[in-house]
Design brief:
alpha+beta; BirA Bifunctional Protein, domain 2; RNA-binding
Length: 486
RNA sequence: GCGCCUCUAGCUCAACGGCAGAGCAACGGACUCUUAAUCCGCAGGUUGGGGGUUCGAAUCCCCCGGGGCGCACCA
């Protein structure tokens, strides 16, 4: 479990009287990637006259008597260090460095006799010693437990871990710019909620001492963002952490990141266009193409994506034509025939949703917008303009998974009150996840919410898609794990 | 929460009822152009923890703990 006790006898911690002279700062003048970019084709054996200072971790070392080579890795990449007894100050000390030690080194950029771009070390300084080793220099660290618990070691030992983290960062940054370019304003709304609203999920609870008040960690951003639209912020978004007190799996972490966006005067058709453009843009910027590979299959993300109603999708994959007028007894029989467990309290809407989720969603490789959900399971979405009992809601399904959830927002306070009341009845009947009535939100709607299209995207799952990760733990720097010592 | 799989040296892995091993790292040494450098030498273990079966257990059984996958819940 423990990757590396202190190893090697000089790894014994020194007494305070004998601390090595670790400087407080180091003036770095070049990065590994910067040096490579500046000298793409330096001839073997050539010098440049350019003296640089680099810093990073010593990842490999090859000694050869009076000379030695090292691989210095910084955030940008790696560069070879070339040291020799004739020109390197404290050459013996350089040779005694351990793999993993942080050092700073100064010298001329040269190409060795074999053509490897290098820094010919004249001076070097120890910046931090690695008292623990980073594992096998060829195999790295593969034990998933160790990788997730000690991400700091994983990031050095495994290139893919670092690339994934950096790609996710660029994805978030590109998303912000994409939204801002379309006039969306980024805001921050409370994490501590009086009521766990905006989604159906079990919340985490916490307590504020001074107010002696039980609070919930948010399960969605939705209701506060729509309050801001009421307040006149016509295009608003937030990229924020939400928390759901549910099981862990390769696709679920208890805290995850949502992008939610609300656009006044727009409907769910406008939001579909926004989603397909955003995802295609990210793929193009990050992967260089909209044709990406995931789980051994190909995904074409270029717009326009297919649109299919939930009932059409169910008809295709479950092989059964149903709708909201189908008798409940018949829907139960259809579900039973396909091994979908049902609850006596469910109405036709919930039965159809379950049928869809259990028989169809996982089969959709996509990308596809599955549209028009039953009102019964969509308390915050607006009635469909032409199909009774349905709402204007869609989910984008990519690789068999929900990537986003969006709708034409319900903006009629009276209708919203009725759907909250229906939720309250469901809760009274035993549905733990039913949404509580939020009176302040109703009051906001009474001030007037214009026609608005809204969107929620799971950024972790988007990152999985764009990095090829098959588990959410690979795109979360520090995934939730059981404590190390039970 | 349930089921299946898994845990051996710091790391990556062998041994699968009969003497716990290798490579890398570490430690000592050789080597003036290496690329996972090479070579010589030396050390490294409560086989996740506990209990049981057996002449003998890393190996078989039971309990506990960590992890992975699936189910349930969900995004």
């Amino acid at each position: 479990m423990d990757a590396g006790r202190p190893v090697g006898k000089h790894r014994v911690p020194m007494s305070d009287d004998h601390r090595p002279g670790i400087p407080y700062r180091f003036e770095r003048t070049a990065s590994a990637a910067g040096i490579r970019a500046a000298h793409p084709e330096l001839a073997a054996g050539a010098g440049t006259g350019e003296v640089v200072s680099v810093a990073g971790r010593l990842m490999l070392r090859r000694e050869q008597g009076k000379i030695a080579f090292g691989e210095l890795r910084d955030q940008s990449g790696s560069i070879q260090l070339f040291a020799g007894a004739k020109w390197t100050a404290d050459f013996d000390g350089f040779v005694e460095l351990d793999l993993g030690d942080w050092i700073g080194a100064t010298g001329e950029v040269v190409a060795t006799r074999t053509g490897e771009l290098s820094v010919r070390v004249e001076h070097w300084v120890l910046l931090a010693e690695a008292r623990r080793s980073f594992g096998d220099k060829w195999h790295g660290i593969t034990d998933p437990d160790l990788r997730y618990r000690q991400r700091y070691a994983d990031l050095w030992a495994n290139e893919e871990s670092r690339e994934t983290l950096l790609l996710r960062s660029r994805m978030t940054s590109l998303t912000r710019r994409f939204m801002e370019d379309r006039g969306f304003v980024e805001v921050e709304t409370p994490v501590l909620h009086l009521l766990p609203g905006g989604a159906t999920a079990r919340p985490f609870t916490t307590h504020h001492n001074a107010l002696d008040l039980d609070l919930y960690l948010r399960i969605a951003l939705e209701l506060h963002l729509k309050r801001l639209v009421v307040g006149g912020i016509e295009r608003v978004f937030e990229i924020g952490r939400v928390f759901r007190n549910e099981g862990l799996s390769p696709r679920h972490n208890p805290e995850f990141t949502m992008l939610e966006a609300y656009q006044a005067y727009a409907d769910y058709h406008d939001i579909m266009e926004l989603v397909e453009q955003l995802v295609a843009h990210l793929a193009t910027e990050l992967a260089g193409t909209t044709t990406i590979h995931y789980a051994g299959r190909t995904l074409e993300l270029a717009p326009p994506w297919r649109r299919a109603t939930m009932l059409e999708a169910v008809a295709e994959h479950a092989g059964v034509e149903v709708d909201l007028t189908t008798p409940v007894a018949e829907l139960r029989a259809v579900a039973a025939a396909r091994g979908v467990p049902v609850d006596d309290r469910w109405g036709p809407g919930k039965l159809i949703l379950e049928l869809y989720e259990k028989t169809t969603e996982g089969e959709l490789w996509g990308p596809v917008f599955v549209t028009d959900y039953p009102k019964e399971v969509s308390p915050l979405a607006r009635d469909h303009r032409s199909t009774p009992g349905m709402v204007e809601r869609f989910e984008a399904i990519v690789a068999g998974r929900e990537l986003c959830n969006a709708f034409s927002e319900l903006n009629d306070p009276d209708e919203q009150r009725r759907t909250f009341e229906a939720q309250a009845r469901a809760k009274a009947a035993g549905d733990e996840e039913a949404m509580p009535t939020d009176d302040d939100y109703l009051r906001a709607l009474e001030y007037g919410l214009p026609p608005t299209g809204g969107l929620g995207i799971g950024m972790d799952r988007l990152a999985m898609l764009l990095t090829g990760a098959e588990t959410i733990r690979d795109v979360v720097a520090f995934p939730t794990l059981r404590p190390e010592q039970a």
